[in-house]
Design goal:
With 564 residues, the chain is mainly beta. Strands 1, 2, 3, 4, 5, 6, 7, 8, 9, 10, 11, 12 and 13 form a 13-stranded antiparallel beta sheet that branches. A five-stranded mixed beta sheet has the order 16-21-20-18-19, with no helix packed on it. The radius of gyration is 50 Å and the shape is elongated.
């Protein structure tokens, strides 16, 4: 702030006579707008004179004529409305001195407002200010006027006038005369923070009644400060309503974020607390927020119990993927309003109690058969969790029976038989080799579909049974191995015959001695005979490679024939 203050004064040709007081730190400096300035002269009693220098006291001109002058400045106070005045001063600099041996007798007075003063119509002088000097002859001078400006602003005055003159009879003694640069009025002010509004706890607006909380809540109120200076903060005060001496008070230097610093050790179960937020800076405070209340509920509910007729630790039980019910009971703890549960550390699910302290029934579909467990927490009305209760149980395998041939040729169709012993099965959902899901209606819990073999390795079929309620069983799978479906190659002299090893062959792709591939159409019976010249090379031995192809692009594995 001091650097900013000095910059303003030097730019105006004036330097402060002393460093800015500590109270001016963390405040906003401003040079007040000038609405009137100049000096008066005994020799021109009806005029307001201006110039780069202001004569003060008695002086003689080039013709040795006698003059006596006072200097004036009038400033606009409107920019200070609503502000707290931290520091105010008038600054000037002596440009010439008649006699440096004479004691400095200059005085600054606040006068009645007069933007165009004259010698004959000089404004009434009201308050005199002490002069501060920085230097010897031709010094920098200033006058502290904070109290005067504060009172003028508080009284609603829009302007203030200050006059520079010599004391008493020295106003007419030429030996005391001096000249000054035009006066500047520098003020440091602070705008108080705004009132704290919209108080919130845990992100939601405060309510008229006290709110139950399970842990120290986050506190927040909207507060702003118009001054771009350090020192702005929000003070949070939390008081035990039953024991006001128990009080937590802290400041948050980040006004734009919730306050999270209320210690858990401060709260007692069942106690009601009231809190307010208030903005403050180095020079003032804003209005506090309306009080908010909360009551601490710090006791966790009791551990619930778990029962199930559908999922039991041993014996017959519900199948995987099919619905079964669990009953959770709060055992009479009337704080409990909800239960949360999860299977084998899965995601938590929730179900409401039928009444405070009552029970709840959860319908669960366990995806995997075998040993399982469910973990349950009772939750009270403010979100406190109980210790967990765990229930171990078994789940029956529910997957359908799936039958396919052990082996089949590429391009052939195989029959897939599906059946399920589960009740109310209406259809089967199946996928071939990782393809899209398809459905087939179930008749008496069974169905058959035809699947084409399109892989040279194996064909898998994954099946789930689906009930009338839309529930899916666990999946089952069956695999059919793809038999060798490559063509047979026979030779009669230079004639070579390709015979299909799979249904639907329409073409053969062949290559002689690993040369370029060629395509030949198959005959109506799927075979073809054609002359081939394999040459007389010794190594590598002459050969022909052949694979068959169907109309829809299925290709067999490659068969190779080596000529002896």
């Amino acid at each position: 702030m001091r650097r900013a203050l000095s910059t303003l004064l030097i730019a105006a040709g004036v330097t402060a006579s002393a460093a800015a007081p500590a109270s001016a730190v963390n405040s906003v400096p401003i040079t007040l707008p000038i609405t009137g300035k100049g000096y008066t002269d005994l020799r021109a009693p009806l005029e307001t004179l201006t110039g780069n220098e202001l004569p003060v006291g008695a002086w003689r001109d080039a013709e040795n004529q006698f003059h006596s002058s006072k200097a004036y400045v009038t400033v606009d106070l409107v920019p200070l409305r609503g502000k707290k005045i931290v520091d105010a001063a008038v600054y000037s600099r002596e440009t010439s001195v008649t006699d440096c041996a004479k004691p400095r007798s200059v005085e600054l007075w606040q006068t009645k407002v007069a933007e165009q003063p004259t010698w004959f119509k000089a404004p009434k002088e009201l308050t005199r200010f002490d002069t501060r000097v920085n230097g010897d002859c031709k010094a920098f001078v200033s006058w502290e006027i904070s109290d005067a400006v504060t009172k003028a602003v508080a009284a609603g005055q829009e302007k203030a006038t200050f006059a520079l003159r010599m004391s008493g009879g020295r106003q007419y003694d030429v030996s005391y005369g001096r000249r000054y640069t035009p006066m500047l009025v520098q003020v440091s002010y602070n705008t108080p923070p705004s009132p704290a509004t919209d108080p919130r706890m845990n992100g939601t607006p405060c309510e008229e009644t006290s709110r139950l909380v399970p842990s120290p809540p986050s506190l927040f109120a909207t507060v702003s400060d118009a001054d771009p200076v350090p020192g702005f903060q929000v003070r949070y005060v939390v008081t035990d309503v039953a024991d006001p001496a128990k009080r937590h008070e802290a400041v948050d230097t980040w006004p734009g974020r919730p306050y999270l610093g209320l210690p858990a050790s401060f709260l007692e179960h069942g106690h009601t607390y009231e809190w307010t937020a208030q903005g403050e800076d180095d020079h003032g405070k804003g209005a506090a927020s309306t009080p908010c209340r909360f009551t601490a509920d710090l006791v966790a509910p009791g551990t619930p119990s778990i029962t199930s007729a559908d999922f039991r630790p041993d014996g017959p039980t519900t199948g995987a993927g099919l619905p079964g019910k669990f009953v959770f009971d709060a055992n009479g703890d009337e704080d409990v309003v909800e239960f949360q549960y999860r299977l084998k550390d899965g995601a938590l699910q929730q179900v409401a109690a039928d009444r405070p302290g009552g029970s709840a029934t959860a319908t669960v579909r366990v995806p995997y058969w075998g040993d399982n467990r469910i973990e349950v927490f009772a939750v009270d009305r403010v979100g406190n969790f109980s210790r967990s209760a765990t229930y171990a149980f078994k789940v029956r395998y529910s997957g359908p029976s799936v039958r396919t041939p052990e082996e089949a040729l590429l391009g052939s169709e195989i029959e897939v038989s599906m059946s399920s012993a589960e009740a109310n099965v209406t259809e089967f959902v199946y996928a071939v080799g990782g393809g899209p899901q398809l459905t087939v209606p179930a008749v008496a819990g069974a169905a058959k579909v035809t699947v084409r073999v399109t892989s040279n390795h194996s064909t898998s079929v994954r099946v789930q049974a689906k009930t009338a309620e839309g529930d899916l069983t666990e999946p089952s799978s069956s695999f059919t191995r793809t038999a060798d479906s490559s063509p047979a190659i026979t030779r009669d002299g230079d004639l070579y015959t390709f015979t299909p090893g799979m249904p639907g062959v329409v073409q053969y792709v062949y290559s002689v001695n690993s040369g370029p591939e060629q395509v030949v159409a198959a005959g109506p019976d799927g075979a073809v005979t054609l002359p081939l010249d394999l040459g007389e090379q010794e190594f590598p031995p002459p050969s022909v490679d052949v694979r068959s192809r169907t109309a829809d692009g299925l290709e067999s594995r490659t068969a190779t024939y080596y000529r002896e």
